[in-house]
Write a structure and sequence with these properties.
Blueprint: E1 7-8, E2 25-26, E3 34-35, H1 52-63, E4 72-74, H2 75-94, H3 104-116, H4 118-124, H5 130-136, H6 142-154, E5 161-168, E6 171-181, H7 190-193, H8 197-217, H9 223-235, E7 251-254, H10 255-261, H11 267-274, E8 281-284, H12 287-297, H13 303-317, H14 323-338, H15 346-355, H16 360-371, H17 374-397, H18 403-414, E9 417-421, H19 439-455, E10 477-479, E11 484-488, H20 503-520, H21 541-559, H22 575-596, H23 609-620, E12 623-625, H24 627-636, H25 642-650, H26 654-660
Parallel strand pairs: 6-8, 9-11
Antiparallel strand pairs: 1-10, 2-3, 4-12, 5-6, 7-8, 10-11
Helix pairs in contact: 1-23, 2-3, 2-16, 3-15, 6-11, 8-14, 9-12, 9-13, 17-18, 17-20, 17-22, 20-22, 20-23, 22-23, 22-25
Bound molecules: zinc ion.
Length: about 675
């Protein structure tokens, strides 16, 4: 289970298109032969004041449909595809027999080999999880149930609820143990209750998926009972918008009070079995959920409860058991939910599995040894300085903010820390054992390793060196608990950052990503954290009112966007990301403007430097998606669909109106009273 508060630039799990370079070269004496925006991606027949995203990307969108094995496709995938080619080389080399036991090559190579060895996987069938299924039918009392749940959680099965350790939101010197809702098979609670045909269809398909999976596993289970039990969990779960309310999820319970909240579980025994110290207090995310848990568990331990546990084990293992089960998992979660037509190639699936496993950092380490550019790191480091200076300048000039809050905001900005490229301290894998012979055992060993690593933080000091993402991933994040921005090596490369490109391009892309992460420190959630990472208000009341009235305008604007006719973006769910997109772009623009000082304005392909900045920005978000993937994104993802990440920000931005002569009353320009300049 992920923490409450870490926010990334993209949820993409992550082809190449370096088109004809000649039209992009900046003919400038001082910056000769630098690449500019990709003008060949544009559709000049579109009016930029009607749909700038289409104007900047129309030709690319037309020529790059979503590949059969993807659900969406854009810049993030292009970079990930390049990275994957490097990762494949690393893994193929490591796969050779005879690597030194315990070495990075042995861990990665044997894991990779076991994943691709489908003969072994199909022969092993259900054997590795047979004991767990048997135990689902064996527990007879509260003590046995509590131990069993802890064993399932240690092995990564998300049954009923979850437990994880994270910095205490209200005390930055210690860790806390958090308990949270979990245990649903559909993407979130809304999928159990929404009435439209789309969700009715998904629910019907889900029950059929349950039934087929039991059959493939050679087990018996009643899909209706399972579905009803999940519906009861869903009924008392928070939805995606509620889950953004941090204060509502910080509920401190003494152990005695926790025993009263959910007496169906022997909590001491549960924590001891997890292998963690028994905490004096825990933070309960959703108390109503934990009250309802008593009803779901009951005292008689119904057949439905035991079936539900079987289901969670079967579904939670399907990816690493037989190829038929892996395919069945794909048919529901890939095809039905997200519109993916074909499975990815096996080596790509193996990389995806490693990226989500405990071995992610081992793979990242091998990646940076092979592919990292210290030159790019150095340049991006300086770019972060530029963005910070531009952000400071913006805060100093904000008209709506009073001095007390301004001082606190500047202090918070000054105390941002940064991590670039890769961790200084790597994970110690000496307690992890991986073999060539059993994929299922390998996956479970990784899960136990990750759970234990997380739980071991309880009672230990805060680890400020820790990374929440491995270095080869094309993404970036802000962590309010450490007030830090983090840019893995995976994203420090073209088209995000290109040492051969002009400033207009690098500031519009990498600059806007950096600005985005800075702004997360000041979005509707980030603004609730102090500079030292504690969840505590630093705003004066009148400024908070101003801030909220401006952010409400963004909520209203995004609520009107329709990625598919009749399907609307959720303005509240996406608010934090929308604030970060808009703020980040503004700050990047001003940082870019500083680079123009003392230079005469150079035209390239008929565009001014400012125009090239906005075109290059829109092009980083070029993306095609299946209809199902768009719906899934709107229902579950705090990031707006790509088109609105571009048009939503730009239609609030006076600097953009000026660059392209965007007139009042056009779609790319919000009416004066709706403009939501925040940062
Ligand atoms: Zn973000």
């Amino acid at each position: 289970m992920a923490g409450l508060v870490v926010v990334a630039i993209s949820s993409c799990t992550p082809k190449t298109d370096s088109g004809p370079a000649d039209v992009r070269v900046v003919k400038d004496d001082r910056e000769s032969n630098l690449l500019s925006a990709n003008f060949e991606y544009m559709d000049l027949s579109v009016d930029p004041s009607v749909d700038f995203y289409q104007y900047a990307n129309g030709a690319w969108l037309k020529n790059n449909p979503v590949p059969q094995s993807e659900t969406r496709y854009g810049s993030f995938n292009e970079v990930q595809d390049n990275n994957n080619a490097i990762l494949k080389e690393i893994l193929e080399a490591a796969r050779k027999e005879g690597q030194a036991k315990g070495s990075t090559a042995q861990l990665l190579g044997d894991f990779y080999h076991s994943c691709l060895d489908t003969v072994q996987r199909n022969a092993a069938g259900m054997s590795v999880v047979a004991d767990l299924i048997q135990q689902n039918h064996g527990f007879k009392n509260k003590q046995e149930l509590s131990k069993h749940l802890a064993m399932l959680h240690l092995q990564g099965y998300s049954v009923l609820f979850g437990a994880y350790v994270e910095q205490d939101l209200k005390n930055n010197t210690r860790h806390a143990l958090y308990l949270g809702q979990a245990g649903l098979g559909l993407p979130n609670r809304d999928y159990y209750f929404r009435d439209d045909e789309h969700y009715q269809h998904i629910r019907k398909e889900y029950q059929e998926h349950i039934s087929r999976s039991f059959e493939l596993a050679g087990e018996k289970g009643n899909q209706e009972g399972i579905f009803n039990l999940e519906t009861s969990l869903a009924e008392h779960s928070m939805g995606p918008v509620e889950l953004r309310d941090i204060a509502a999820q910080y509920n401190e319970y003494s152990l005695a009070d926790l025993e009263k909240l959910t007496p169906s579980i022997d909590w001491k025994l549960y924590f001891t079995t997890l292998g963690t110290t028994v905490p004096d207090t825990v933070i309960v995310g959703q108390p109503a959920f934990f009250t309802n848990l008593n009803k779901v568990i009951g005292t008689e331990y119904s057949e439905s409860l035991r079936n539900y546990l079987d289901w969670q084990v079967i579904e939670g293992s399907s990816g690493f058991l037989t190829t038929a089960m892996e395919r069945e998992h794909f048919i529901f979660y890939g095809k039905t939910i997200r519109g993916q037509k074909q499975m990815k190639e096996d080596w790509k699936r193996a990389i995806d599995v490693i990226n989500r496993s405990a071995l992610d950092e081992a793979l990242g380490k091998a990646f940076v040894e092979k592919a990292f550019s210290p030159e790019a790191r150095e340049k991006v480091y300086r770019m972060v300085d530029d963005l910070m200076a531009a952000f400071k300048d913006r805060i100093e000039k904000l008209e709506w903010m009073t001095e007390g809050t301004r001082k606190a905001a500047l202090d918070k900005l000054a105390r941002f820390t940064r991590k670039l490229g890769y961790p200084d301290k790597w994970t110690d894998y000496s307690s992890l054992s991986i073999s060539r012979n059993s994929y299922a055992s390998n996956v479970l060993a990784c899960r136990v390793f990750s759970r234990k690593k997380n739980l071991a933080y309880l009672g230990k000091p805060i680890d400020r060196e820790k990374w929440e993402m491995p270095p080869h991933i094309v993404n970036a994040y802000y962590n309010p608990l450490l007030n830090e921005i983090v840019f893995p090596a995976g994203i420090l490369q073209p088209p995000f950052f290109d040492s051969k490109a002009e400033d207009a391009v690098n500031y519009a892309r990498m600059g806007a990503v950096i600005g985005h992460e800075f702004t997360h420190g000041f979005d509707d959630q980030g603004a609730q954290f102090m500079a030292d990472g504690t969840f505590n208000n630093w705003w004066q009341e009148q400024d908070l009112i101003q801030f909220q009235s401006r952010t409400q305008r963004l909520v209203n604007q995004y609520n009107r966007f329709q990625p598919i006719p009749g399907v609307f973006v959720n303005g509240k769910l996406t608010l934090g990301e929308n604030i970060a997109d808009f703020g980040g772009l503004t700050v990047a623009y001003y940082a870019f403007k500083r680079t123009l000082k003392g230079k005469e304005s150079q035209m390239v392909n008929g565009f001014t430097p400012e125009q090239r900045f906005f075109i290059a920005f829109a092009q980083i978000w070029k993306s095609n998606a299946t209809e199902q993937a768009l719906r899934h994104q709107v229902d579950t993802d705090p990031h707006s669909p790509a088109k609105f990440r571009v048009n939503g920000s730009l239609s609030n931005m006076p600097e953009f109106f000026q660059a392209f002569g965007i007139k009042d009353g056009t779609p790319m320009r919000q009416p004066e009273e709706e403009i939501a300049v925040i940062w």
